[in-house]
């Protein structure tokens, strides 16, 4: 004699639905430091300059969020795909594109109104933009090789040295009271009036706003001397600091 089968358990869909607790969706914004690459025609020469920079500083873009600014280049769709392939071949991953209407399947998204942001506001609940807090930071000692000092909203002052393989990035100006042997990028917040000052000029790479120069482009005239760097009419200037 076989055992009786258990009776099927009946469920009430309405009761099950009542037991489900619905939680409201939560939206939070996150701000990441992004570097903008601005290719210029002819692209072949620009890529050659990029290769030269990467040879000097192979970790320059490591772990960086990169935006491709196409305002000066304005490529066709095919040319843009070719440029992105060239960048991927150099292990450079582009997260977004700005300054162009070129779009297509498989391309990074088009970005507009890029600026530092603390949170994301939904269209139905517009929020007042938060004021940009300008701050300055001081490093009491030296910046060792492999270290990165970042202050996207103000100046950075280093009381000691910036070693080879180290990096200082500032939204404003950079002041180094010792030797500058690593990378220094000032004006990262689109500030062409930012400057770089150091007591001993031996940098691997310098940048102000969107202009970058490597050690090979600077010549030996200022090496080991106190110097300042600034922009004048879209050209990077270097001079002895008296």
From TrEMBL:
Top-level taxon of the source organism: Bacteria
Protein name per Swiss-Prot or TrEMBL: Probable septum site-determining protein MinC
Name of the gene encoding the protein in the UniProt record: minC
Assembly mode: Interacts with MinD and FtsZ.
Function per UniProt: Cell division inhibitor that blocks the formation of polar Z ring septums. Rapidly oscillates between the poles of the cell to destabilize FtsZ filaments that have formed before they mature into polar Z rings. Prevents FtsZ polymerization.
Keyword Membrane recorded: no
One Pfam family per UniProt: MinC_C
Family: Belongs to the MinC family.
